[in-house]
Amino acid sequence: DNIFLKIDIEGDEYQILNSIKKNSKNLVFLIIEFRQVHKNIKKIENFLKKLDLKLIHIHANNFEGINRNNIPRVLELSLLNKKIYNIKNKLTNNSYPIKYLDYKNFKRRDEIKIKFIR
């Protein structure tokens, strides 16, 4: 079965990461929102390293802002199955948010910008 999964469970996503890892080969596409990123960055990194999925898009949800170290409190990640789709490992030159793709979660607050550094 090819499964498209969207997870937005207000902080409980950390409780199901192992189940997602175990079943990631059955997923075609995963969208997951991580809350309290500043407290769980290592969990998120470890989760991403052990998947059959590849991160293809990232968006910082501006509703809860950033912490004092400029780390977004909420991230929305899109991942695609790298065994089904041929995706090259390439560091992006994109800066996020991407115009016409990403939109503010909270209209009266500036977007949180993300840029990857080589």
Question: Any overview of this molecule?
Answer:
The mean pLDDT is 90. 17% of the residues lie in helices and 29% in strands. By secondary structure, it is an alpha+beta fold. The protein is built from 2 helices and 6 strands.
Alpha-beta content class: alpha+beta
- Can you tell me the residue ranges where pLDDT is under 50 for at least 5 consecutive residues? none
What is the percentage of strand-forming residues? 25-35%
**Main sheet: which strands, in order across?**
1-2-4-3
Q: Helix share of residues? A: 10-25%
Report, as a whole number of angstroms, the end-to-end distance: 37 Å
Total beta strands: 6
Largest sheet: 4 strands, mixed
Number of helices: 2
Sequence of secondary-structure elements: EHEHEEEE
Rounded Rg = 14 Å
**Average predicted confidence as pLDDT:** 90
Categorize the overall geometry.
globular
Helix and strand topology:
Layout: E1 3-7, H1 17-23, E2 27-35, H2 37-49, E3 53-60, E4 74-81, E5 95-96, E6 114-115
Parallel strand pairs: 1-2
Antiparallel strand pairs: 2-4, 3-4, 5-6
Characteristics of this structure?
118 residues, alpha+beta, globular
